[in-house]
């Protein structure tokens, strides 16, 4: 775990002291988009996506690449699940870096900006033509994937429809703060107070989700949207990792009937299962966060069956 300062790598854990033991996520810095008539034209084969299978933010991008039929247009590199003193690393194939034969993800950041100061995070959308990072913010990468390559792929599925954008943005706001980032705020807290604040707002938000899903098929009504996929990547990690490792242990997702069935439905959505790589997920969290789990022992359980039949859309506690 570390960061770049003026282009130099420093092995340093998150500084929570400044914020009373609270984990505060820093803003992503590369915020360009792909668009016709700009320096980043939508072109097949031009862009490369760096991800970790472990990371919920990168997972969003992988899911959108799949749902939007971009696999033949945007290739992917997957980092090694362990993130230790050099940050994200590449390894032997298939976890190698094909463009520059880089060993570490920070080298890719340095290609984009030799003086870069900041965290070296996944996902990264890389432009092979101008050899720079287009964007390293998953919330924006999924919007790019949602629409920008439609002419190339012919895939017009829209997970951010104009009629629902305001509602989706509102849902994203509290789901991000209290759930997606909430699990990290709980797990990375270094004071009891900071942990309890995060824990309480997390479970209040999960109760809210359960309430919504008892009335409605998806978060924003009967249409599957970006808001659902953003929540999914946290829910699918919850019982296996966050519940134990991040101490978010009031309830598991399997204890919420509507949310659990919803999670099964999303997991079983065409193409999604192959984006969920549980051994990378467990290894990454348990063995990389040595301040939380110094032995780096990865628990064997729990056994989770995401293939169970779900009841969504069958009037089973929710309107179809
Ligand atoms: N806001 C970013 C967050 C990405 C992020 O924090 N990724 C984590 C992995 S889950 C990471 O790469 N962390 C490395 C670090 O913070 O040094 C996004 O959504 O893309």
TrEMBL record:
Residues at the catalytic site: 55 (nucleophile), 184 (proton donor/acceptor)
GO cellular component, one term: cytoplasm
Region of interest (Disordered), ranges: 297-320
Xref: CDD domains: GST_C_Omega_like
Domain GST C-terminal: 161-285
SUPFAM superfamilies in the record: GST C-terminal domain-like (SSF47616), Thioredoxin-like (SSF52833)
UniProt GO molecular function: glutathione transferase activity
Pfam families registered for this protein in UniProt: GST_C_2, GST_N_2
Taxonomy, superkingdom: Bacteria
PANTHER family: GLUTATHIONE S-TRANSFERASE OMEGA-LIKE 1-RELATED, GLUTATHIONYL-HYDROQUINONE REDUCTASE
Protein name listed in UniProt: Glutathione-dependent reductase
Organism expressing this protein natively: Idiomarina ramblicola
